[in-house]
Amino acid sequence: xxxSVIYQEILAEGEQRGEQRGLQRERSLILRLLQKxxxxxxxxxxxxxxTSSLEQLENLGEALLDFTSLADLFSWLDTHSxxx
Length: 84
Known about the structure:
By secondary structure, the protein is mainly α. The chain has four helices and no strands. It is elongated, with a radius of gyration of 17 Å.
């Protein structure tokens, strides 16, 4: 049964859903941490983070510990856009 195409498709779909949920949780955590660190985020920043990869979010999560203002976030985003 585990070798069947249908089983494999269901398994792959379940894994993909789990990964998407994990990414959403990561994104939500990063947004909350950023808001706590630098204040309310402009909508374009929130939108930009909605399309970020897991790797980008993880890197931002580490970098935000050094942020003191929204300008630091903008600088980081400009430096790292599309590079990861």
